[in-house]
Specification:
mainly alpha, Arc Repressor Mutant, subunit A, two-stranded antiparallel sheet, 6 helices, globular, HTH_MarR-typ
Length: 160
């Protein structure tokens, strides 16, 4: 067998090509809303989290950024008024970023176009049963290669 004709190489190549292609399509909508890819990922993860906030360490794990990397992102988003820092009720040394109304508004500005792009370039190409199976498969793989991708998904209480 030709070592370059291995289906594992084909799978990785196709996955990389698909991701890169979709990311290129998404980048345009994000830029029009004044967001980078990492800004969008950070804001959408906060918006979709219980209480619309996460501990910094959990957010870093979910975004696959270093602690200092996510701190720089949060600092920038906080200066823009898109996130605020809230004290953690269970650990006074910690704080967690929480999306603000301005952050939600920015997401709502880009979300319709983003969802159209996802539908056009990705999910709309699959039948409902195919999409369901594909999502199950992605979760299976994600849970093995990035088990921390859902870190902090449980409810956290802000300090009162």
């Amino acid at each position: 067998m030709d070592p370059f004709d291995d289906p594992r190489l084909t799978a990785m190549g196709l996955f990389a090509e698909v991701y890169t292609g979709i990311a290129d399509k998404n980048r345009r909508a994000f830029a029009e809303a004044g967001l980078s890819e990492v800004d969008f990922e950070t804001l959408i993860r906060l918006a979709r989290s219980p209480g619309q906030g996460l501990r910094m360490s959990d957010l870093a794990a979910q975004t696959n950024l270093s602690t200092s990397g996510i701190t720089r992102v949060i600092d920038r988003l906080e200066r823009e008024g898109l996130v605020s820092r809230e004290a953690c009720a269970t650990d006074r040394r910690a704080f967690y970023p929480q999306i603000t109304e301005a952050g939600r508004a920015r997401l709502l500005e880009v979300l319709p176009r983003h969802l159209e792009d996802i539908e056009h370039w990705f999910t709309g190409l699959l039948q409902p049963a195919e999409l369901h199976r594909f999502l199950e498969t992605l979760r299976l793989i994600r849970d093995v290669v990035r088990p921390c991708a859902t870190a902090g998904a449980e409810e956290i209480e802000p300090a009162t």
